[in-house]
Amino acid sequence: MHALEFFQQSEGVWRSHRITHHLLLRRSESGNTEIKVQVLVPDDPKVIEICQLHHVEPSQAIGGCFVQWQGAMAWDRDEGEHHQGSTVFVLVPHSKTADSGELLRERGYAESIPVVGQYQVDTQNGLVLTTEYDTMSSQERFWFPNPHLRLRTTTVKSFGGFNTTSFCAESKLAQTSLPTQPSLSDNGSKQPLLSPTYSWWGW
């Protein structure tokens, strides 16, 4: 599997169940987010726009994705605040094999600025994404146990010593669009819903 095939397999609507460990604070949080992923062809205007943003020749891109998300954080719910948004990213391979290269984004998840990360498909067909920021670094690995289940782990390391790790299990939904309101966990309990800023996708 090369990177674009990995993203093609990610197309659709997903519910992400997540637990995040804040190592310095010695606390954990769990929650869910719903995400819609749409694969973009190389000549899509969104792909061209991101290439131009990063001063990359659009012909070097092999495609990308448009991602939308909805979620809510427990401490914001009382005020009626929800977290939702969208982002675009583009794949620019290092070679014709397309199993490694640059990931161009209009915004990062550790810092909300245009950013360039690195992607690599490993020997187990997992996708590893690494991004270096001015104040921190992040690494994330995705893999598919089956076509309807995607797993991922994330580590964010601050240069000041503040680290977080996350594990996500994401199930593919039959619906084709995001719900109008973010949902609670399946058992109806008020589990904290994580902010969509803990992932390379942007959510």
Question: Which secondary structure elements does this structure contain, and how are they paired or packed?
Answer:
Blueprint lengths: L2 H7 L2 E11 L4 E14 L4 H9 L9 E9 L2 H4 L5 E11 L6 E6 L9 E7 L5 E6 L3 E11 L2 E10 L4 E11 L30
Antiparallel strand pairs: 1-2, 1-10, 2-3, 3-4, 4-5, 5-6, 6-7, 7-8, 8-9, 9-10
Total domains, how many?
A: 1
N-end to C-end Cα span: 24 Å
Low-confidence stretches: 73-79, 179-203
Instruction: Give me the count of strands.
Output: 10
Mean pLDDT: 79
Oligomer: single chain
Rg, nearest Å: 17 Å
CATH level 3 topology: Lipocalin
**Tally of DSSP helical segments:** 3
CATH superfamily: Calycin beta-barrel core domain
Written account of the structure:
This protein is mainly beta. It has a single domain (3-173), classed as Calycin beta-barrel core domain (Lipocalin, Beta Barrel), CATH 2.40.128.20. 10% of the residues lie in helices and 47% in strands. It has 3 helices and 10 strands; from the N terminus they run αββαβαβββββββ. It has helices spanning 3-9, 45-53, 74-77, and strands at 12-22, 27-40, 63-71, 83-93, 100-105, 115-121, 127-132, 136-146, 149-158, 163-173. A 10-stranded antiparallel β-barrel has the order 1-2-3-4-5-6-7-8-9-10. A hairpin with a 3-residue loop joins strand 7 (127-132) and strand 8 (136-146). It starts with a helix and ends in a 30-residue tail after the last strand. The model is unreliable at 73-79 and 179-203 (pLDDT under 50).
